[in-house]
Amino acid sequence: MAESANAQQSKSLRHKSRRQGRERATYRLAEELGGLETLSASYHQQNFGRHSHEGFTLGIIDSGAQRFFRSGGDHVAPKHSIILVNADEVHNGRSATENGWSYRALYPTPEQFAELALCSKQQVPWFAEPVVQDPLLAHLIAITHEALNYSSNRLQRESLLYETLSLLMLRHGRLKPAATVQAGPLLNRARQFLEDSCSSNISLQELASLVQLPPFVLLRQFKAQFGLTPHQYQTQARLILARKLLRLGASPIQVAQDSGFCDQSHLNRQFKRAFGTTPGQFVQTEKSSRWSQD
């Protein structure tokens, strides 16, 4: 019986190791497009916590299916479908099947939509449907992703991106007031402080005093407006800073100190949960995946 139990445990460990080996995430940056980011990823065990992005998420599912929270409910994106997440919209993500999922994503910014003269500074695009079936748009996203990752032709890259964004807005978008307009000056001041001084060890009382609101009122209104508590928003801002510092060549140990994390282990846990890869893996894929833009 002992041998049988050991064999079963060994089989389970091998299966777990194979699944972990299939976890992959490659981020790339198009500097000439305002720092537009792309992602190619395959996940089996990854479970993204709730977070938001300054930009939009525009992704296509290549295999499997993804389950994610957005717009107050859970949604499932099957193979060949398109995932749409609005800028600053809280969401998460995990596999909807035992076999995981793989996808490719673009993260366009509100400024890039504004360059299309599709909206003003007081407006942002809004996509009501979290999951859409649109073969033509999915094909365009795929070839745009390919160009942004492997082509050095800037005219091609920019043209494909703006063609994709234009078709996306035409078929699935509408305009709404920007979050900064909706939030009001006090909440925006708190949010801006957390972004600008994310590494500082500020208390809720100190943050509330800064914006002249009672602590509980700030906590409640901040989460209602931005979908995250001030502490969650601070952690997210620290992770964004950490990624920037890693791209500039800082070591993970130094990044942990400079971005406000307790130590490198704390940074590693939060980074993996947010981005699906460790800081060390992120640095390695950055080095290996950079393309020439000459």
From TrEMBL:
Kindly give the Gene3D superfamilies that the UniProt entry links to this protein.
Homeodomain-like
Q: Offer an example of a GO molecular function term for this protein.
A: sequence-specific DNA binding
Task: State whether keyword DNA-binding applies.
Answer: yes
Q: Where is the composition biased (Polar residues)?
A: 1-11
Highest taxon, organism lineage: Bacteria
UniProt keyword Cell membrane, yes or no: no
Arranged from A to Z, the UniProt key words for this protein are: DNA-binding, Transcription, Transcription regulation
- InterPro entries, sorted: AraC-bd, AraC_XylS_family_regulators, Homeodomain-like_sf, HTH-like, HTH_AraC
Tell me the segments the record calls region Disordered: 1-23
- Which residue ranges does the record assign to the HTH araC/xylS-type domain? 188-285
State what protein this is by name: Helix-turn-helix domain-containing protein
Q: Which organism is it from?
A: Shewanella chilikensis
